[in-house]
Amino acid sequence: MFRKNEQHRQHSFFSGEQLLPAKLRQRLKESWAETFYREVFCRIDEELFAVLYSDKASRPNVPVNVLVGTEILKSGFGWSDEELHEQVCFNLQVRHALGLSDFRAEVCDLRTVYNFRKRVREYAETHGVNLFQKLFEQVTDEQLEAIALKRGWQRMDSTQLLSNLAKMTRLELIVSVVQTVYRQLDERAQARWQERLAPYLDGRPQQVCYRIKADAVETHLETLGETLAELAAELDTKAPESEAAALVQRVLEEQYDVRVDDTVAIRPADTVSADGLQSPHDPDATYRVKGGTAYRGGYVVNLSETCEPENPVQLLTDVQVAPNQTDDAELLARSLEGQADRGISLEKMTVDGGYTGPKAEQTCEQHQVDLRATRMRGGRSVPDRLGWEAYTWEVDQEGRPVRVTCPEGQTADLTPGQADRRYIARFDTARCAKCPLFNKTCRVEPRRAAPTFYVRQRTIEVALQRQQLCPQDAPIRAVIEATIRSLKHPFPASKLPVRGLIRSTMVIYGSALMVNLRRLHRYFTTKQGQQVAETGASAVLSFFSSLLTAIRTCYARWHRLYLPLSPAACSRRVRAVA
Question: What share of the chain is helix, strand, coil (3-state, %, to 5)?
């Protein structure tokens, strides 16, 4: 049964924090823990997670904001589950951040945390909604509104993160699949297949493959293919909807060719798709080579953050997580659509060349966003020829090219060619003959009728985009690379501590919330930020804290003056004081 947690708002005069000396209490109030409590913990909308609990009258839930807060802290600091539990139990700052200022408050055990994660994952699988994404958007929107940050100009970049998977060879992958499927079979099926699969079940996949000689690898791959084909036929009959059946079928389709005579042949390695299975333990992770680096089994994380010069602090506004084969332009489209649904009016987006292309242009035009790319996707012209961006292009209201002007100032009409979206331009023969660029670097070539060049409409569109590039935005865009490093800092070697798209998304959103939290803390520690952070509630709490300090001081003075005396001596001293 779901119940909101409001107990943290009722501060006890006799909590553990009040027993601290005044200087330590002040340091605690000025630490990141107070900023987390105020800007993250108190903003968590627990109602988002009410769908995970029963409506029937039953035992109340463990506070949702505590469970969510621990997940955010774990992601932001890179703690293991055991380290997280120790921090919550014994770290005063962590307890303050989670509203557990009373040392008598019970702390949930790790089993409760595991069950909560499981519910979030199952809800995402069933309904297609990751509640941690909703949480990030809700908390971030409130933070942006509270500080009145301008959001019209943002910058965007993406990065690669690996899933918590071991690197495997092709044989190790298939052996791992066999072991995983075998464990999912019932006892009778395991008994039938045990003898045939025995050579591949003894030890981890790396240990099994280590015992196989190099010249026998192909033979074992063929044998495993035939075994998987028979296993797939059995599962298709007895358990067609099971995860094991889907896993076997996927491996067969990606790694093998099934011939007409039902025999199975291993595919050449270079024909296996990059989005093929990298591990049976994380079916969502894919393979990608970017910038000359291979990312085997991972995800792409796309970040958007404010970059208005007037803002006193810049915050992450949107995060997308997807298999690493996803194109940057697709992530840009998702971000613009998601932010539009949240009521964020974007005017300009500064990006690098990876976000350019037809899909990005169409999406930005749809949302009326100025795409300010610092570079363009694709190579430039060869050194001995002028780039198409060196020419001046005119288009009509419908976007069709109608006229072109060469670098030397000669203008020619563009007429449609025989092929679709092709154009022809013919220039004056006499003027071209005097041009120092003609027959050298100019695109115009001598023809019998007149100097001519042929051009595609897409080439013209790209040339117009190159003319509109914003290289002056490069320093603005480069700042987001520091944001990416902050996001990835808790994950050594850019490797997540979890597997699966849903679980990885939860961890990344937690880290993103901590990136914003650290920036807000730095902002609030400035004089201007302290004025913004001051609220009526904090003033009232400060008053009661001062009152409690005065009471403690009076009690200590009375204890020192009167308690060691006898009753008669105490009376005499009271009369003397009077």
Answer: 55, 15, 35
